[in-house]
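## retry 2 of 3
previous attempt timed out at serialization; input unchanged, resubmitting
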Amino acid sequence: MKNESNVQTVIFIILSILILIVKFITLWRSAKENQKLWFISIFVIFLLYSPVSFFVDIAYLFFFSKKKLTFVEIKSWFGK
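## retry succeeded, writing output
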């Protein structure tokens, strides 16, 4: 039983870190592209209802950003 709890804790921590990384990238990109409305909207949604904010981040990065995020760009972050 205790081992199961440890695994759940590790998964929770990994997912939390992933969500924070995506949140940072989304806010950074919206600020860099001077999209103030998107920046404020994403930040407020994150503060009020965090589970939905991850989907808003993904939608912004891949569909609504002036410079859309691509999988090629993500791959370049990790080297060749």
